[in-house]
Each structure stands twice: as C-alpha cells, then as structure tokens.
C-alpha cells in the first residue's frame, strides 16, 4: 500500500467515524448530550465517579427536565 493509499484510507475512516452511531443518536435524543459529555469527560480525567458529583447532578437535572425518566421508566433513588 502506497503512502497516498494509506492517507486515503485514513481519511475515509475519519469520515466514517464522524457519522453518529446508534449510541450517539440515543444520547442526542435525550436532550442531554452536552451534560453527558461533561460527565464522561470528568470520569475519564478523574477515574472516580465520586469526584464528578456536580457533573452527575447537572446530568440528572437535565434528564428529568427533558422527561427522560418517564420515557425510560427510570426510578429516582
């Protein structure tokens, strides 16, 4: 495979990766994609959910505000 072929393959893969997959579509449909991103970024950086309490609360409030708890039969415990 030539250098140009490798570059073309990498560019094609990048285009494919930019398409929203099923998980992305489900997260975007909740209306809380930004909050979810902040929460997962926090966990990625700190590796401890306890250190992400504010991000979790912000996500939880967004989830409830958009009615996702009723749509998914979530229980608030």
TrEMBL record:
One GO-annotated biological process of the protein: mitochondrial respiratory chain complex IV assembly
Cellular component, GO annotation: mitochondrial intermembrane space
Entry protein name: CHCH domain-containing protein
Naturally occurring in which organism (per UniProt): Phaeosphaeria nodorum (strain SN15 / ATCC MYA-4574 / FGSC 10173)
